[in-house]
Amino acid sequence: MKKLLALILTAVILCTACFSFASCEKKADYTVGVCQLMVHDSLDQATKGFTEALTAALEAEGKTVAFDTQVAGEPDLCTTVINTFTAKNVDLIMANATPALTAAATATTTIPVLGTSVTDYESTFAGAIPANVSGTSDAVPFDEQAKMMIDTLGLVAGDMVGVIYCTGESNSLIQYEAVKALFEAEGIVVKAYTFSETTELQALTTSAADECKAIYIPSDNTVAANDTIVGTICNEKNVPVYTSYGGAICYASLAIDYYELGAETGKMAAEILLGTKTVADLEVKTLVPTVVYNKELCSALGIEVPEN
């Protein structure tokens, strides 16, 4: 009897082990590499929207996907991350932010690459977007942003607006030049406050808050990841901050929802992986931005929030 029980127990263990091994060995239908430039809320939300939308779209077709998600931490390390994806020959690369996108486009011409949280694809690739590249853009109408600041702050000719951005982000330079032209057309003085290391941000912001009537921040990933520094200093000096990407430090913004931006990118990825579309079929998409006011900050700064 003991021998019989031992044999049954051994058989059960072997069957369980075989089942577990088979389960572990089962591979997803697709593997997607996600390279996110750095950790901050906007990029985090875009990655979340992408993975959830792509997973849902593929599951609806009875397919599965495995994600290899890596945060580079800084622009120079995006290439290292992307190279791990090309070595694995992933089915698709999602590049979250401009440095990640340029690294991916440089590394491969065969693997489909979708960008998100990228402002201007044309400028990024000097007017020639690679055939294997498309995605979504976080671009917003800069003229509407400038007008919103002028109207809500009562800016007049001679007033100075400071623009804070990181020199390592080409996205930010494009936005700076756009808003600079728009403000200067109204006689408003624009001054750039640029930095390359985050250790410079505190002193830089202090100077900007001392000299300017208002601060404009483009969708700059480095500033966004450290914007509590900017917010704290500017709030102490009663200087309103307007950001292109939203966030807690701005009194108002005309910005897009980064989760929805990532979700749109995920839907595009599903079309590519399922074979219903090629990258060449997909144009770069943008979202309609929404107006948001921070009522608490507006009250503290004496800014009247429109009733509508």
Indicate the CATH architecture of the largest domain: 3-Layer(aba) Sandwich
Rounded to an integer in angstroms, the radius of gyration calculated over CA atoms is 24 Å
For the residues shown, what is the average pLDDT? 91
What's the arrangement of strands in the largest beta sheet? 2-1-3-4-5-11
Relative helix content: 40-55%
* CATH fold type of the largest domain: Rossmann fold
What series of H and E elements makes up the topology?
A: HEHEHEHEHEHEHEHEHHEEHEEH
Major sheet attributes? 6 strands, parallel
Task: Draw up the topology in text.
Layout: H1 2-25, E1 30-36, H2 41-59, E2 65-71, H3 78-88, E3 92-96, H4 98-107, E4 113-118, H5 121-124, E5 133-137, H6 142-153, E6 160-166, H7 170-184, E7 189-195, H8 201-211, E8 214-217, H9 221-225, H10 227-236, E9 241-243, E10 252-255, H11 258-273, E11 285-286, E12 290-293, H12 295-301
Parallel strand pairs: 1-2, 1-3, 3-4, 4-5, 5-11, 6-7, 6-8, 8-9
Antiparallel strand pairs: 10-12
Helix pairs in contact: 2-11, 3-4, 6-7, 8-10
At a glance:
With 308 residues, the protein is of the alpha/beta class. The protein has helices at residues 2-25, 41-59, 78-88, 98-107, 121-124, 142-153, 170-184, 201-211, 221-225, 227-236, 258-273, 295-301; strands at residues 30-36, 65-71, 92-96, 113-118, 133-137, 160-166, 189-195, 214-217, 241-243, 252-255, 285-286, 290-293. It is 47% helix and 20% strand.
